[in-house]
Structure formats: structure tokens, C-alpha cells
Amino acid sequence: MAASVLLRTSACWANRFVFRSSWGHSCRRFSSGWRKIQAASLTTATRLRPVHVLVGTGGGYVGYWQYGKYKDRELERQGIEVPPHVANEMEVALYKSIPTRLLSRAWGRLNQVELPMWLRKPVYSLYIWTFGVNMKEAAVEDLQHYRNLSEFFRRKLKPQARPVCNSHCVISPSDGKILHFGRVKNCEVEQVKGVTYSLETFLGPQTWTDISKGEDDAGSFQDLLVTKDGNQLFHCIIYLAPGDYHCFHSPTDWRVAHRRHFPGSLMSVNPGVARWIKELFCHNERVVLSGEWVHGFFSLTAVGATNVGSIRIYFDRDLRTNSPRYCKGSYNDFSYISSTNKEGVCMRKGEHLGEFNLGSTIVLVFEAPKDFTFNLKAGQKIRFGEALGTM
Asked: Which member of 104, 174, 175, 235 is catalytic?
């Protein structure tokens, strides 16, 4: 009897020992596996940095955007008109958050670095091949003559390379591509077909001349710019690609009375971005030169772009663009008319006016008789000195 009880007790303790051993082994295996999972997740979190997330997200967005562009091209080949896809406010704000002004200043300093003689020809040849530059038109064809990229970008042309048309009153101020042209309607200007910007936002308030119209006849901002009865406002937008001649000239005989400088963003102004961002030219830094020609109001605006923060006007040494001391959203005025100079700056048609550092956009807004017509097509290439239109 005692022996059986002792045997049962021993078996019970043995079973308990086996259960506890197996339970402890299972717990240790579970704990070891959990530690491995924690270590793996920690390693993944350490390796998955914000840069990787940004690159992955950006790559996916670019791929999606390119697929959309591919579908649009297919529709255009079929003869179907595709409406422009305009960016929303969040996309514009995200683009403007990129420090393009800082990057453009860094690019400008890089352009000033003098290149060694042995490096000049390979660097400039690569640029010529990439953007299709015609060096046969350059005043100096020897690539080793240009000490840095800035000098190469601002190269002069041979005098006979761009004959100025004398039979028309308005000529193209630069080489480039015609983005859009026509009459200004309802104070809105088309930067490309279907995408507009406000004329008043672009030029700023009309304060550079005395307004002779009464309050009852003031009308719209567009009406304030028209100084002669029977005239209308016209506009023309010329895009300068990186491979184009980067200087711009006076498009007509006129008198420059006022300069207005808008510090702003430096987003790209290529035609694709112009179709995407509404009022692109109003966001970007720009220099508005306004005055008069024989038919009334005339203005030329040089619009900055990415890596083109430097806009130079030859007769205005006080102008400083892409400078940190200016605040975005503001503007500053300067009058060329003074007590000793009642006329301002008189410019002759074809005369050198200014230059960009790389490539950008010129916008002409001017008053002319109703019978003025453009001899242009949207998207066509044009060269400095060629006629824009006729009366």
C-alpha cells in the first residue's frame, strides 16, 4: 500500500517536472523569437531613412506623372485635344518649398569658377551637344576663350548673325520659342493655351504714371494701361531654352520710364511647367520695364527661372536680383525719370538691353491700334531681330 502511494507520488512529480521543463523551453523559444522580431524591426527602422521614403515616394509620383503624359501624347496623336492638367495649391506650395533661390545662387557662384584650359573644351562641348548650341554664330568660336560657364552662357553673336528687321515696328527681343500671343482679354493673359494669369498681379498696381481718367471712367486695370482711344492691349511670350542666345534686346523704339522688381520663387518656366502651374510667371522673380512707344503703353518683363536668378539690365547698375535682402511677395520700384532726366532711358530697336545667366522668358505687353496683327504661330522658333507683327 505504502509502496503504491509512493509510486504514484513519484509519477506525479515526474509529470510536473516534464511539464515545467517543456513550458520553460517553449517560453524561452517564444522570447528568443520575439527578440529576433524586435531586432529585425529595429534594423529595418534604422535602415529606412527619410531619404529613402522621399526617393521612393518621389519616384512613384514621377512614374505616375510620366504615365499620364504618355496617355496625353497618345490622345494628341489621335487628334483629340487634351485639356491642360493644372496643379492644385498643395502641389504648387510643395514646389515652392524647394529652395530654388538658394540653389540658383550656388549655381551662379559655380558659374564664376574659372575652368582650367584642358577642361574647357570637354565641358563646353558637352553643353553644346546636349542643347544644340550653334557656335558658328558666336563672335568667338574658340571654346578655350571662355574662362568660365558664365562667360560661355553670355557669349555675344557675330554682327551679321541676327539682322534687325527695319520694315516692322516690333521685333523679337531674343531667340526662343513662342509660347503664346494675342490680345489681352478681361485682364487675363494666357501663358500657354488654356492656362492664364492675372495681368494686374503680373505687372503690379499702376503707379508709375499719372492717371488722367476720372473715377467714373477708371474701369479695369487693363483700361488704365490703354492711353489712346481705339487701341487695345497685346501680349507675346517668348521662352528662352538653355541652348538659346541668352541676351535680349530692345524690341522697338521706346522710352523706358520705370522699373519694378518682384522678388519671388525661381521655378522652371519650360513649356511643360507653364502648362502645369497657373500664374507661373506671377510666382517667379521678374523685372518689369515699363514706358511708352509711339502707340502708347509698352512693357518688357524678364522672368527668372531655376538657375536663372541673375537678371541683368545693362543701363541699370543698381538692380540686384535673387538677393537675400528682398522678401518674397513684395516689390520695389525705381523711376528712371528725375529732375535732370525728364525722358527716362531711350532705347532704339535692336539695341542691347540685358541678359540672363542661362535661359528664361520674356513677356511683352503693349498697347497698339486694333489693326495690329501677329505674324506668328504658337510653338514656333524665333530669332532676335525677326518681326513679331504688322499694322
From this structure: 175
85 in active site: no
Q: What is residue 197's three-state secondary structure?
A: strand
391 residues of the chain, pLDDT tens digit each: 444 544 444 444 444 444 444 545 554 554 555 555 555 554 554 555 665 665 666 667 567 656 666 666 666 677 666 566 666 678 777 777 777 777 777 777 777 788 888 988 888 898 888 888 888 888 888 888 888 888 888 888 888 888 888 888 899 999 889 988 988 888 877 776 667 778 888 888 877 665 444 444 445 777 788 888 888 899 999 988 888 888 899 999 999 999 998 887 777 777 777 777 777 888 888 899 999 999 989 999 998 877 655 788 999 888 887 777 666 667 888 888 887 888 888 999 989 998 887 668 899 999 989 888 888 888 889 999 898 888 7
Q: Is the overall model pTM greater than 0.85, yes or no?
A: no
Please identify which of the residues 249, 258, 261, 283 carries the catalytic annotation: 249
The alpha helices in the chain, defined as continuous H runs, are 2-47, 50-77, 89-96, 100-111, 117-131, 149-153, 199-203, 221-225, 271-276, 280-283
Residue 341's alpha-carbon distances to 9, 206, 352, in angstroms, are 120, 21, 21
Given the residues 104, 265, 290, 360, select the one marked as catalytic.
360
Q: 246 an active-site residue?
A: no
Q: State how far the alpha carbon of 183 is from the alpha carbons of 24, 148, 188, 198, in Å.
A: 87, 42, 10, 14
Query: How far does Cα 195 stand from its chain's mean position?
Result: 15
CA distance 175 to 292: 23
Q: Name the burial class of residue 296, with classes exposed (0-12), middle (13-18) and buried (19+) by CB atoms within 10 angstroms of its CB.
A: middle
